[in-house]
Amino acid sequence: KAGVTQTPRYLIKTRGQQVTLSCSPISGHRSVSWYQQTPGQGLQFLFEYFSETQRNKGNFPGRFSGRQFSNSRSEMNVSTLELGDSALYLCASSLDITYNEQFFGPGTRLTVL
Amino acid sequence: EDKVVQSPLSLVVHEGDTVTLNCSYEVTNFRSLLWYKQEKKAPTFLFMLTSSGIEKKSGRLSSILDKKELFSILNITATQTGDSAVYLCAVEWDSNYQLIWGAGTKLIIKP
User: Fold this and answer.
1) By CA distance, what is A36's nearest residue in B?
2) Which residue on chain A is closest to B40 by alpha carbon?
3) Residue in B closest to A106 by C-alpha
């Protein structure tokens, strides 16, 4: 069974640009969560999607958005990039609404110059 | 404010030592506590704890939850260099079906 995949693995952007990251969950998993990880802040929850609906959202500005498609693949978008958005973005999938064992993807390392 | 606090933030021990990592929490409507190991990028799941006093074990790793005192510990016995990693604790709380994460404990095992 294939694991969670994320593309691209590495990305370099400049301030003001926008970026789209993609996450393909484990087959059969309907819940996809996104996290930002920085050395000083640890993992910070961005949002969680289940069956194409955003169920939860963390405390991030509106520049951070996401969506989930009917095949459970998810994308997150960051507009008007700032230097502080440089981080490892992790996505995790889990089976369903009550099963909270999440399987993480390898992450996308975003560097904003 | 809901929070998860891990201690120590970092720890350096020698191979063969036993280590105990701590995770304390204050959340509304606790559901479960999870431990993850993060070596390079993707955290990998270790344990999920929901009931007090029941130890979960996997090889040299074990964990237990105390819901009265609101903490969990992760024990690693006979440590090996491969145990070097950041160990993350997360707590699921009922209201919004979210995980709140601790900052992690960076464990370094010296040969």
Assistant:
1) B101
2) A106
3) B42
Q: Do B48 and A100 touch (CB under 8 A)?
A: yes
The span from the CA of B27 to the CA of A22, in Å, is 31
pLDDT for A4-43, tens place per residue? 999 999 999 999 999 999 999 999 999 999 999 998 777 8
CA distance B89 to A111: 26
Q: Are A105 and A92 in contact (CB under 8 A)?
A: yes
* B42-96 pLDDT tens trace: 899 899 998 888 899 999 999 999 989 999 999 999 999 999 999 999 998 765 6
Question: What letter represents residue B22's amino acid?
Answer: N
Beta bridge partners of A112: A13
Query: Which amino acid is residue A26, in one-letter code?
Result: I
Q: pLDDT averaged over chain A?
A: 92
Query: A18 in contact with B at a CB cutoff of 8 Å?
Result: no
Query: A33, B48: Cβ pair inside 8 Å?
Result: no
Q: What is the sign, positive or negative, of the torsion defined by CA atoms of B20, B24, B30, B34? A: negative
